[in-house]
């Protein structure tokens, strides 16, 4: 039997593949395998490090996210765009739902920003007719009772984005893809830049920026802070009204029926503060106590009250 090692003629089992000896080929294979193993190992390590650790989300002092948040958002979006305001039927509720959750999921719930909500604002943009924007402060029920009857008037919660989010709570956690249903930051006890507070400031700012013509605000004269500079209305909305678009802000100072005490009326200094801020912004101001159409709504609930017989 002839001995190969010395023959320069390539043997049949070593077809001329770049003339590499078996040993070299074996070494190369081993090297490739090792390289592959290293790559896989690195990928696994990185994956484990990057994978959101399943540690429980941080405990906060506020209530947790509303159960079934995403389903509620989607359902409300379709109800609003298909039933309540079909002129918005073109809105993409799937996109809107995603944009909403992506605004806060896997993010630190104490560093939420207006930027997080820009896509959501874009997907829910809505033109509110002039003379129909209704702001409110410490009087959510009365304001919404009024716009439920006057369907041509809009509070923020009568717009698509306000309708979708009204009464809900939501937050995520930087170390998880999940919503935090256990707890969310409380605006005073934990942090002010939490997803919910930032959201309402952001959408309230846009609602004010879009307002035009005569705009109105429902205020509560039966509480001590009828006009509160630190409220969303006093801190965000009056400062984002455009003097060039808004001709006058009409305040309706309502008082609880059967209310033992009326803290403030249109002639109270606290209302002068509001008037002063607006005058500095070249926006005219009028004020009416117990604006009759809303008073009528209050009287529907308490027809026997003496103030309802006048
Ligand atoms: C609604 C919520 C929630 O003019 C109104 C609306 O446009 C509103 O966005 O902001 C104004 C009322 O806020 P304000 O003056 O702070 O009144 P308030 O009664 O002290 O506070 C109500 C909370 C306003 C922001 N907000 N608005 N629906 O679910 C909701 N959650 C929060 N935090």
UniProtKB/TrEMBL annotation:
Keywords on this record?
A: Disulfide bond, Glycoprotein, Hydrolase, Membrane, NAD, NADP, Signal-anchor, Transferase, Transmembrane, Transmembrane helix
Entry GO MF terms: NAD+ nucleosidase activity, cyclic ADP-ribose generating; phosphorus-oxygen lyase activity; transferase activity
Q: Which reaction does it catalyse?
A: NAD(+) + H2O = ADP-D-ribose + nicotinamide + H(+)
Q: Which GO terms describe its biological process?
A: positive regulation of B cell proliferation
Please name the InterPro entries in this protein's record.
ADP-ribosyl_cyclase
Subcellular location field: Membrane
What GO CC terms are in its UniProt record? plasma membrane
EC number(s): the record gives 2.4.99.20, 3.2.2.6
Q: Where are the transmembrane segments?
A: 28-51
Q: How does it sit in the membrane?
A: Single-pass type II membrane protein
Signal as a keyword? no
* Family stated for the protein in its record: Belongs to the ADP-ribosyl cyclase family.
- How the protein assembles, per its UniProt entry? Homodimer.
Protein name per its UniProtKB record? ADP-ribosyl cyclase/cyclic ADP-ribose hydrolase 1
């Amino acid at each position: 039997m002839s001995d190969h090692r010395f023959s320069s003629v390539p043997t049949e089992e070593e077809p001329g593949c770049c003339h590499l000896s078996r040993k070299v080929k074996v070494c190369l294979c081993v090297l490739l395998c090792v390289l592959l193993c290293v790559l896989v190992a690195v990928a696994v390590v990185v994956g484990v490090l990057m994978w959101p650790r399943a540690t429980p989300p941080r405990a906060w002092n506020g209530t947790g996210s509303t159960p079934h948040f995403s389903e509620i958002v989607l359902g409300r979006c379709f109800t609003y765009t298909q039933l309540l305001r079909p002129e918005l039927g073109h809105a993409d509720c799937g996109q809107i739902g995603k944009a909403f959750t992506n605004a806060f999921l896997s993010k630190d719930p104490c560093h939420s920003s207006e930027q997080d909500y820009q896509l959501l604002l874009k997907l829910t943009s809505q033109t509110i007719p002039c003379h129909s924007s209704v702001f409110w402060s410490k009087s959510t029920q009365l304001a919404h009772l009024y716009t439920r009857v006057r369907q041509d008037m809009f509070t923020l919660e009568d717009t698509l984005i306000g309708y979708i989010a009204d009464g809900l709570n939501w937050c995520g956690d930087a170390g998880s893809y999940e919503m935090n249903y256990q707890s969310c930051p409380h605006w005073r006890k934990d942090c002010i830049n939490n997803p919910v507070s930032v959201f309402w400031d952001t959408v309230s700012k846009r609602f004010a920026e879009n307002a035009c013509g005569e705009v109105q605000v429902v205020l509560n004269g039966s509480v001590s802070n009828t006009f509160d500079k630190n409220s969303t209305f006093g801190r965000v909305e009056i400062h984002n009204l455009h003097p060039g678009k808004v001709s006058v802000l009409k305040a309706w100072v309502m008082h609880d029926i059967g209310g033992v005490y009326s803290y403030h009326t249109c002639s109270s200094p606290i209302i002068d503060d509001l008037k002063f801020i607006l005058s500095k912004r070249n926006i005219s101001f009028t004020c009416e106590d117990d604006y009759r159409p809303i008073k009528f709504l209050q009287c529907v609930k308490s027809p026997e009250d003496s103030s309802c017989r006048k």
